[in-house]
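Notes, p. 3: input format for complexes.
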Amino acid sequence: MNLAVVGAGYVGLVTAAVFAEMGCRVTVVEINGERVKKLQEGEIPFYEPGLDGLIAKNLQSKNLIFTQNYDKAIPGAEVIFICVGTPTKNGRVDLSFVYEAVKSVARNLKSYAILVIKSTVPPGINSKIEKKMRRFTRAEFDVASVPEFLREGKAVWDTFHPYRVVIGSVKKKVIHKLLQLHRGVPGKRLVCTPASAQLIKYASNAFLPTKISFANSIAVLCDEFGADVEEVMKGVGMDKRIGAEFLGAGLGYGGSCFPKDVAALIHLAKRSKYNFEILKAVEKTNKKQIDYFIGRTVGLCGGEVKGKVLVILGLAFKPDTSDMREARSIYVAERLQNLGAEVRACDPVAIPEAEKLIKGARFFTDPYTALRGADALLLVTEWGEYKTLDFARIKKLMKAPVVVDGRNIYNRKQLVRLGFKYGGVGR
Ligand code: UGA
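Output follows (427 residues plus uridine-5'-diphosphate-glucuronic acid):
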């Protein structure tokens, strides 16, 4: 099948690479010429495990083509994926990239194609997209919604092994074609209206942060009652109706999706005169986790961090990505600097991005170098390599043996045995 993908961001590149790997001929059109040039040479604009190999392989087999020109991608494509960004400002979704992309697709559409909206867009906008298309093309087309559920850092795996494929269309031939296109991947299928598909995406990206903020609230209570949040949420998650995932307490959620989509859903609800109070509390709780963590750090540092050297381990918003959008590290660093601390910031891959967002810190890729002479180690993002640190060595390097574990990954007993002062979140 011939496919076109509009937008070479996370969603676009992974979608393109995976369908190419499954035997489709995929042309990716991207307006950023610099990015296209690099991609043609197999260079990926961000860190995503497994994606570079997949792209290199399919570039070579010519199943994957990158171009800046819509006229090279659109004519002849049977399915066209719109994978451009939908940023929000105070919760208001900016659809200008989607509409621009749709216009360019329409101008180059010569024969029937299915336009699939993968970008996260407010429910019910497909009729507007159709109208826009009609203004610029005489060719026949259908518009469907197939939301994306991949996680950064696990994007390739998620796309090959989705939990579910949601197909938002009411037209038989469209549903048939899209089911056929996805036959190479496992997971449950749900066929529904486009508006439902779009709302499934927002509801999912709002429900998962709700679980996280709930776990974080329980963590605060655990501290009060002398319970351990890891044990508590393990027990809670054993109930299949609740599920064990996304109950990890810690510094809260960041990234390009949860904060944006929670804000967008609150805003969309408000426009419909509904006050989405649960989600407002989810946002508030997420912000409060930073205060909680800072409070814990100050406490473990003897009530004062002024003039102290504090090392943040993990800057990316989560492990296995270089993405710094809404990363908790930005807020932690800023708060500590405001309290007069000297911040050292450490990450295996995110430093080029982090340098733009965290000012006045020193950056390190090696945690042991960063920890020399430090007053506290602050675990903010749980990269695999930070889980297996040599704490006996670290104890000798640090000025004061303090560990503040923002993701509850360390073994308290072991650290205390080695002579560390340890504080987690809710344990
Ligand atoms: C999220 C969703 O998980 C994907 O299904 C969705 O497709 C994607 O958004 C999107 O809309 O594009 P992602 O933002 O890549 O994926 O990252 P997650 O793995 O979901 O983690 C988000 C944040 O939640 C991270 O900051 C992580 O540290 C935090 N988190 C996660 C917790 O604090 N506790 C947990 O138990 C799990």
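DSSP finds 18 helices and 16 strands in the chain.
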